[in-house]
Amino acid sequence: MAQSGNHIIAKPSQEHDHGHGKEGHHDLESLRMMGFWIFLITDCILFGTLFATYVVLNGNTAGGPTPAELFEMPGVIAETFILLTSSFTSGLAVLSMNRGDRKGLIRWLLVTVLLGASFIALEVTEFMTLVHEGASISTSAQWSAFYVLVGTHGLHVTIGLVWMIAIMIQLKQHGINSVTRRKVNIISLYWHFLDVIWIFVFTIVYMMGVM
Amino acid sequence: MLDKIKDFASDFFVTGDPLIYGADVSIGLTIIAVVFALTYFKKWTWLWRDWLTTVDHKKIGIMYVIASLLMLFRGGVDALLMRTQLAIPDSEFLSPEHYNQIFTTHGVIMILFMAMPLMFGLFNLVVPLQLGARDVAFPFLNSLSFWLFFFGAMLFNVSFVIGGSPDAGWLSYPPLSGISHSPGVGQDFYIWGIQISGIGSLMTGINFIVTILKMRAPGMKLMKMPMFSWSVLSSCLTIILAFPILTVTLALLFIDRYLGAHFFTLDGGGNPMMYINLIWMWGHPEVYIVVLPAFGIFSEIAATFAKKKLFGYKSMVFALMSISLLSFFTWAHHFFTMGSGANVNAFFAVTTMIIAIPTGVKVFNWLFTMYRGRLSFPTPMLWMIGFIPCFVVGGMTGVLLSVAPADFQFHNSYFLIAHFHQVLIGGVAFGYFAGLYYWWPKVFGFKLNEKIGKWAFWTWNIGFYVCFMPQYFLGLMGMTRRVSSYGWDKGWYELNLTSTIGGFLMGIGFLFQVWQILHSIKFMEKDTTGDPWDGRTLEWTIPSPAPLYNFATLPQVTEKDDFWEEKQRIAQGHAPKPRPQLEPIHMPKNSGIPFVMSAFWFVAGFGFVFDWLWMAIPGLIGVAVCMLVHSFRYKTDYYISVDEIKRTEAAARRVV
Ligand code: HEM
Ligand SMILES: [Cu+2]
Q1: B57 vs A28, B103, B199, B362, B435, CA distance in Å?
Q2: Ligand nearest to the CA of B427
């Protein structure tokens, strides 16, 4: 492929052969991949700050309910299980894509979306129960930190869902090409990332909360 | 009904102050004049097509510069209002409430809406050219960053005439900034204005890191990269580590205010001290974010006007990187007096002092670069020379402040005010001015008048010392910051009056700069060479102003200061490096989405400020729709043909 500068041609129609250019320059799609990795670093710091505030405020219940009293672990374990599975299915989606199997790709993305949506549904139910039992965001610093940390993760998942649906439509329209391939790679990276964050949420918020 | 409307209007618009009525009128008149002029000269499509939707980094850079100079004007007027109030004891020019609002808006505007965008403007104008690149890594995102900054800044600025300005200081410590002590909308303007523009800053950080790491011209190893680009890299690395902390901090403050949460409240188990820790974990790196690029500018200027290689290149790189790392370990020096304990204070005192080492290395390197060079002193060089003593004194008073026991004495006094203005004006503002003067011909294709420039330089510099030196003494005499008035019996009168005179001198310096620009536009002295300063780096190899695609063919870099070495070789009779053949150039298409999406952010922010969900929610939906529309766009690029490149290059009188 011709290299006309640091914007190497990456037209959607040109399918293959878009790796490294002659002088070790990268094409547009790989620039974007790198940009996304850096975005993930910033997101890590964002969550890191939220975890830090949670840890600082943990236990500041101001006489109100404590996590140990209210957390219901079965629901949380179900959420965890569902999210881990969805991470796995998003991996299967990428595998289908690498085989060039568009149908399989869309199907696995759909499964991932459904799993993600049930995760959100469970989380919303959990929040509603908690509020019902007298622990809302304004109850105490403990619960403010809880809702904001867990809610930020939930918001990320929700955004991921909308985004994944948009990508599925684009896959229907354009098939698998260098652009959609990058998009699928990025969303699956994002999805795994949210999974990792959730494992921290599970350990620091829920496990340590009930212990 | 009519009463209701009146009630609403008197809440909505800021009333009761003649200064603000004056501002209302002038804002109204300016808007009418702009709309009229655009309509009369039929410039609306030009504005939209050439500017509002552009993804060209050079134009985005120009827009940043214009916006930030306007903000410098606004922040400067604020500063002069404050200085006028302080010139005479017991003065009643500004009420205490108004004074609080003014020092808050002045601080925020100067750092976030003047220094940051001026810096981003220079990034955009210079970095791709210096790297030998055709663009930044993400042109669309670049335009989005600009418009987010712009609409964020506008949101912050309207608080002045609509709803009321924030008044809890530029870092808005709770509980003062909490809902119980600041029930008005001013704080919410603060939060949303900074939040929206902050997202833009974060994206710029990502954009330039990728640009620098991935888009350098063939052959330009990292250790051959010009020093300004290095400083941008270090500043951007600091941005991506620091700005997410700010985002979270402001979001938590907003959630406290809006949803009654208890992160920083005094009741409900909240912890205001956590806010102070968080905000300074961003705030301290932030001052290095803005000063590091100034260091890069000085390195370029010192080498160019001494006609010598930069002394100690490697140690310069090392100093930049260690400063950006160390800046994350000093934040607690901002609250030595708030009971952290002796060991914590000692740790942060030592880390703070350590930063003086790499900074000292840089100063000595600049001096050695100039030592025995063939020096010349056009305006960019003057600003560099003016910077050095100013920054050295500012740095030394900073080290004094970093001694924790001493800080118990100086804390929140005018000594501190003098210190940070010395580094912010002497380091940051002078640095960026130097950069603007240096790269101006490259950006606009004409030179700035040197004579008026020298007047500007001297009035600024003399004004600076007259303004801030007395403040060190005022601080030692016990004058604290953020006081709006004092009695005759204090004995602070003469020094304050002197300081105010210095402030106005700087104002005159600014007017000289405006005059210099207007004068130079009128009597335009075109830069036909593309290389007016006999430069060393790649940006000087192309015509001024740079064509849309920057480089017709990508330069092949073999060494540091490649252009300079090439000129030496040609002077010795060697043939110039062969140029590769022209090929069609791949370019990104313009897009209106960044502008529209940022406008929706403005709408959403405004809605949240006034607690109008009917406005905020559609705003957020608008943002989401814009993102989706962008995601579905596939034809986002086009090619410039070889013929057109040839025509453009010939027009620039540099036939290839
Ligand atoms: C151009 C000349 C300037 C003058 C005459 C000036 C004057 C002042 C004055 C009178 C105050 C209030 C001090 C107090 O009562 O506490 C102040 C505060 C401040 N200034 Fe400036 N200033 C100037 C430029 C700048 C620049 C260029 C920056 C930053 C890049 C800056 C950043 C600040 C900050 C952060 C504050 C603290 C606001 C607060 O207390 O919350 N100033 N300045
Ligand atoms: Cu600091």
Answers
A1: 17, 33, 18, 29, 17
A2: 1
